[in-house]
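Q: Sequence in, structure out?
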Amino acid sequence: VQLQASGGGLVQAGGSLRLSCAASGGTFSNYVMGWFRQAPGKEREFVATIKWSGGRTYYGDSVKGRFAMSRDGPTNTIYLQMNNLKLEDTAVYYCHARILSRQFWGQGTQVTVSS
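A: Exactly. Output:
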């Protein structure tokens, strides 16, 4: 399984960005896919996940109400719409996929929020 993340960048506080993660090399109907992030000097933090089958989403407390995940079946792509970005959202964002005990990580994409 390969995960290709994109969409990071520099944005001012209060702005928006949308991250994408294209998955390949598997059948994802039973996967849980999502995003984690890691800021400098901090541990990797859960951001959001989506169950591919059914589309149920879960969010970390720090992003609830501001971030939204979605998926596109035909392209095996997940999205993270990030609104009302805050300085503390600055981090490298990693795409993640999990099925049973197996998990996969994509390369990170940098999100920098400026004041």
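The radius of gyration is 13 Å.
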